[in-house]
Amino acid sequence: MTNHHVYERLVRVTSSENVLVNEPLKNHTYTRLGGEADYFVTPTTYKQVQEIVKLANHENIKFTLLGNGSNLIVKDGGIRGIVMNLNKLTTIETNGTTVVAQSGARIIDVSREALSDKLTGLEFACGIPGSVGGALYMNAGAYGGEIKDVLESTIVVDPQGNLLTLTADELDLEYRSSNIPDKGYIVLEATFSLKEGNYEEIKAVMDDLTFKRESKQPLEYPSCGSVFKRPPGYFAGKLIQDSGLQGQQIGGAQVSLKHAGFIVNKDEATAQEYIDLIKHVQATVHDKFGVRLEREVRIIGDDLNR
């Protein structure tokens, strides 16, 4: 449900080209799933982010931050209120051995920038599809590295619209988690502390990781990446494979034949089909092995029959 007064105020904060009404969120998620957002707003400055948060508070309107949608399922009923996306905040700058990146930049691009400046430490991120903000949100990691290893500080907006600078320690970074969701922070930029390295060596590591990713992951179909966290002592993909679930399909959603830890949108799936398949996988693995698979992917939004 949209309200002309709220639309006018959002346009005043940013501009009409940065405020879309009833925008289909499947246009903004890696799974290509999701209903409409009442207002889809793409601010271009930190001040605009603060103003939009304050506006949502003042109007008592629901507010949701959407990253680049790589580790996310938006339900078929979409999201009410204001959905803010920071994909216009993408600046990456290097200063000595420090790289400062805005939250809408892709963490892959930050790792490439580090490579071009002969800086080592972010090689692990060369295959992570998320944004910088999303990478901090879940302390993203791969191939033995994680954000926690290289993050120095961050600038965030709190739920009241205040700008805060925090050290990495203040984010309680742990395996695939941080306090960002609990505190309601919106990440605006991150400062990474890297080390000088050898261009050819850094590139060789990144090429190797890219090859591993492309050969093992089902990048030919839309997906949210790795669906489940790694259960202690096991690998989620192997448990799913050993449960005979590979290739299993509900509607257009399928457990990937290439990597069982992925669920792909093979054929115009709905979000509900995707979610039903996740639950089916969890139930089957629990029945067979007594292991509870915990979701790594976030599910947000309303059901269709709201």
Automatic annotation (TrEMBL):
<keyword id="KW-0560">Oxidoreductase</keyword>
<feature type="active site">
    <location>
        <position position="176"/>
    </location>
</feature>
<keyword id="KW-0131">Cell cycle</keyword>
<dbReference type="InterPro" id="IPR016167">
    <property type="entry name" value="FAD-bd_PCMH_sub1"/>
</dbReference>
<dbReference type="GO" id="GO:0008360">
    <property type="term" value="P:regulation of cell shape"/>
</dbReference>
<dbReference type="Pfam" id="PF01565">
    <property type="entry name" value="FAD_binding_4"/>
</dbReference>
<keyword id="KW-0285">Flavoprotein</keyword>
<feature type="active site">
    <location>
        <position position="296"/>
    </location>
</feature>
<keyword id="KW-0573">Peptidoglycan synthesis</keyword>
<dbReference type="GO" id="GO:0071555">
    <property type="term" value="P:cell wall organization"/>
</dbReference>
<keyword id="KW-0963">Cytoplasm</keyword>
<feature type="domain" description="FAD-binding PCMH-type">
    <location>
        <begin position="33"/>
        <end position="212"/>
    </location>
</feature>
<keyword id="KW-0132">Cell division</keyword>
<dbReference type="Pfam" id="PF02873">
    <property type="entry name" value="MurB_C"/>
</dbReference>
<dbReference type="InterPro" id="IPR011601">
    <property type="entry name" value="MurB_C"/>
</dbReference>
<comment type="pathway">
    <text>Cell wall biogenesis; peptidoglycan biosynthesis.</text>
</comment>
<keyword id="KW-0961">Cell wall biogenesis/degradation</keyword>
<dbReference type="InterPro" id="IPR016169">
    <property type="entry name" value="FAD-bd_PCMH_sub2"/>
</dbReference>
<dbReference type="InterPro" id="IPR036635">
    <property type="entry name" value="MurB_C_sf"/>
</dbReference>
<dbReference type="GO" id="GO:0008762">
    <property type="term" value="F:UDP-N-acetylmuramate dehydrogenase activity"/>
</dbReference>
<dbReference type="InterPro" id="IPR016166">
    <property type="entry name" value="FAD-bd_PCMH"/>
</dbReference>
<feature type="active site" description="Proton donor">
    <location>
        <position position="226"/>
    </location>
</feature>
<keyword id="KW-0521">NADP</keyword>
<dbReference type="GO" id="GO:0005829">
    <property type="term" value="C:cytosol"/>
</dbReference>
<keyword id="KW-0274">FAD</keyword>
<dbReference type="GO" id="GO:0051301">
    <property type="term" value="P:cell division"/>
</dbReference>
<comment type="function">
    <text>Cell wall formation.</text>
</comment>
<keyword id="KW-0133">Cell shape</keyword>
<protein>
    <recommendedName>
        <fullName>UDP-N-acetylenolpyruvoylglucosamine reductase</fullName>
        <ecNumber>1.3.1.98</ecNumber>
    </recommendedName>
</protein>
<comment type="similarity">
    <text>Belongs to the MurB family.</text>
</comment>
<dbReference type="GO" id="GO:0071949">
    <property type="term" value="F:FAD binding"/>
</dbReference>
<dbReference type="InterPro" id="IPR036318">
    <property type="entry name" value="FAD-bd_PCMH-like_sf"/>
</dbReference>
<dbReference type="GO" id="GO:0009252">
    <property type="term" value="P:peptidoglycan biosynthetic process"/>
</dbReference>
<dbReference type="InterPro" id="IPR003170">
    <property type="entry name" value="MurB"/>
</dbReference>
<dbReference type="InterPro" id="IPR006094">
    <property type="entry name" value="Oxid_FAD_bind_N"/>
</dbReference>
